[in-house]
Amino acid sequence: MKSAVVAFFLPVLLISAAQARPPAGADPNSPLGQWYNSLRQPQDGISCCSLADCRPVEMQLGKDHYWIFVGRQFTAGPNKWMQVPDNVILHVPNNAGQPVACWSPESGLLCFVPGPET
Description:
Elements: H1 2-19, H2 31-38, E1 54-56, E2 58-61, E3 66-70, E4 80-83, E5 100-104, E6 108-113
């Protein structure tokens, strides 16, 4: 019975661990990593997570909304264009130099920082 339980939960734990890793070559202690860690959800001030959940994304500006592509840059990303809800947009200086989304499979889109040109 124990081996069946371990066999069931081990893949879940491994997938969760893979989702929590920063992108290859990213240093969480660098100034950019610290900027990612400083991002807070606009509605409640809770962390947008960290460098592990935030990635540069493709962005398009629609008539009234931002659209982003959430795909392979995120583990288990939905691989589709998504409209960005107004309540997750952060109006902060963009230290990444490109649009950034913080996304998790469990919670969806947590935060979005538009590109510096917008």
